[in-house]
Write a structure and sequence with these properties.
CATH class: Alpha Beta
Radius of gyration: 16 Å
Number of domains: 1
Number of helices: 7
Oligomer: single chain
Number of strands: 8
Structural class: alpha/beta
CATH architecture: 3-Layer(aba) Sandwich
Largest sheet: 8 strands, mixed
Strand content: 15-25%
CATH superfamily: Peptidyl-tRNA hydrolase
Length: about 200
């Protein structure tokens, strides 16, 4: 559909996963939905929660796949086919354990980096040529490679203030991506989000 921008946040459905690090993609599109006053509804034929809104002549379709992370691509493919969304108007927002908490990295394309949600999307779309916005969630202090418990754990209380700032910056970056293009959104928002106390130290 002409002038439709599809923003997909990745995560796992259900209350048990709602506030976990692996669901920061869901949290980000929810914050953007609040910003543009989009209302959510479940749409079973797409296996997703969707929210729609128009802003400055642009149509936004926000998506939270309800397939569980490892099968996210089926919902993304169904939506891109049905709404005829061009790949340059698709943005996937995802957690990244290889980036420290507070780091944002928007790219025009790339590998999955071992992220199962991105692997599924790449498989279903048969391309890596879509934008992805990685939100750093960091790793455990011991730096071990086994991170399942960590990414499926909840943010610590001392991280929540920074998380709020991260989500607000991501929402602004998504809006910039649609309005001014990906290069501008990369230049203006990629990098480190810091709390005021961190900047002062």
């Amino acid at each position: 559909m002409e002038n439709t921008y599809l923003i997909v946040g990745l995560g796992n459905p259900g209350a048990d996963y709602a506030s976990t690090r692996h669901n920061v993609g869901f949290m980000a599109v929810q914050r953007f939905a609040e910003r543009i006053q989009a209302k959510w509804r479940s749409e079973e034929k797409f296996q997703a929660r969707l929210a729609r809104a128009e802003l400055n002549g642009r149509k936004f379709l926000l998506c939270e796949p309800q397939t569980y992370m490892n099968a996210s691509g089926s919902a993304v493919r169904a939506l891109t086919d049905y709404f005829k969304v061009a790949l340059n108007r698709l943005l996937v927002v995802v957690d990244d354990a290889d980036l420290p908490l507070g780091h944002l990295r928007l790219r025009t394309r790339g590998s999955s980096g071992g992220h199962h949600g991105l692997e599924s999307i790449e498989q279903h779309l048969a391309t890596r040529g879509y934008a992805r916005l990685r939100i750093g969630i960091g790793r455990q202090p011991d730096g071990g490679r086994e991170i399942t418990d960590y990414v499926l754990g909840k943010f610590r209380p001392e991280e929540l203030r920074l998380l709020g700032m991260i989500l607000e910056r991501v929402a602004r970056q998504i809006e910039c991506w649609a309005a001014a293009g990906i290069q501008q959104a990369m230049n203006d928002f990629n990098g480190v989000v810091e709390t005021p106390s961190a900047k002062e130290s």
